[in-house]
Each structure stands twice: as C-alpha cells, then as structure tokens.
Amino acid sequence: MQVNNKFSMTLLSRSSNESFARSCIAAFAAQLDPTLEEINDIKTAVSEAVTNCIVHAYREELGNIYITAELLENNVIKIKIRDKGCGIENIEKAMEPLYTSLGGERAGLGFAVMQSFMDNIKVTSKVGKGTCITMQKKISRRFSFNG
Amino acid sequence: MSVKINVTGEVVTALLGGELDHHTANEMRREIDSAVELNMPTLLILDFSDISFMDSSGIGLVMGRYRNLMKSGAELHICGASPQIYKMMKLAGIEKLAKLEGR
Lengths: 147, 103
Prior knowledge:
The complex is a heterodimer of chains A (147) and B (103).
Chain A: E1 3-12, H1 17-29, H2 36-57, E2 64-72, E3 76-83, H3 91-94, H4 110-117, E4 120-126, E5 130-138
Antiparallel strand pairs in A: 1-2, 2-3, 3-5, 4-5
Helix pairs in contact in A: 1-2, 2-4
Chain B: E1 2-8, E2 11-20, H1 22-39, E3 43-54, H2 57-72, E4 75-81, H3 83-92, E5 99-102
Parallel strand pairs in B: 2-3, 3-4, 4-5
Antiparallel strand pairs in B: 1-2
C-alpha cells in the first residue's frame, strides 16, 4: 500500500512519555481529518502499547521505545510500536482479556483495548529480544469533494 | 491530574480530573484510598466528569477500589463517564461491579 506520509520517533521508557507519545500520534493522525471518537480510539490504543513497553518490556530498567506512524492510501493510519525489552513468552495468553502477569492495579486489558479500538493489530515477539505491535485503523471520510 | 474529595455523611465522592493513565493513576489511587480509609464510607462515588483522557489504567483503578470496598461491604458508583470512558468500562464489564452512569 502506498505511503503518503511517515513519522518516526524514539522515546525513553519513562511513564511521563505516555501522554507525549499519544498526543504526537494524534496530532499526526489529524491530517486524515478523523472524528473525535476516532482520534480518541487511536490515542487510547497508543497509550496501551506504550504503557506495555514501560511496565512489561523494560520493567525496572530504561530502554528505547521506537514509534513509527504511516498515513497510507485510502485514509488508513498504520502505527508500529517496538521495544527491545524482555519479549512475550506466550502471545496468545498475553492477549486474553483480563490476563495480567503483574496483578495489583493492572487490569490486563491492554491488548483487548487495542483490538477493540483499532481495525487490526499484529503482535510479534521474541523472548529476550523485544516486541513489535503493528496496528491499523481506517479513518472515515467526513467530507466528500465530489459534491 | 487532580482529585477533589467531598464527604457527605457516609458517602465519599472523588471528582477526578485531567488525564488518567499509568503515569497519573498511582497518585489518584493514593488520594482516593486515604479518603476512604479516613472516612470509612458505605458508598464511594468516582466522578469522571473532568477526565479528558483515560486508558485501561483507569479500569485498573476502578477494579482495585472495588476490591478494597468489598472488604467492608461498601458500594461503588461511577458517574460522569464520557462516551469513550463508557465504552472502555463496558469492554471491561465494570457495570457488573458498580453502578455506571455516563455524562
């Protein structure tokens, strides 16, 4: 699929960057003229993915979070969020709603939210190497130039 | 991030404001929990009216407070949920644990 625009950034896995990351992607996605609901869906999914990098992938250590967003043809945004953290042993289990390896105050809903708020999500991971989440969402065209 | 506590009789209301994510959830939790410990309410109302953004850390916050309240048999109500927050609460099945009201 043709890439019309692209944006990349690298962030340290500090929790203060969660808000920064989702705001950046939201500002970039604004070029597709999304509805308020669509922009909120994207912000929420990005927040979940970045939080996963911080609380799961890197845990007690600091590492880089690599974020790329592409605006594709047909008004689709593709977002890739990658880390070089501990990796996920069992992706299927990690994606089960309400499953969390951390307990306590984590709801275990990160992947469920990403799945439900975006059109599709792909997760690849290698233990000890890191995890990559790719998700896409088609933005509705609110205005038609054909009259 | 802000938490405003209001106590009326046996009811504690926490008006939450700003963005609720993993970064801000801990401080919100501490403020709500200290108000609950101090006042021992029979009902805790979490008011999301002034929350501009929430991810699943907000669900963790609600579930954690529900677990704590269960020990004393107190009830939990959620109000002021924006459509986005409401969607997230429904996804998590929060309406089975607490009375849930939108904005």
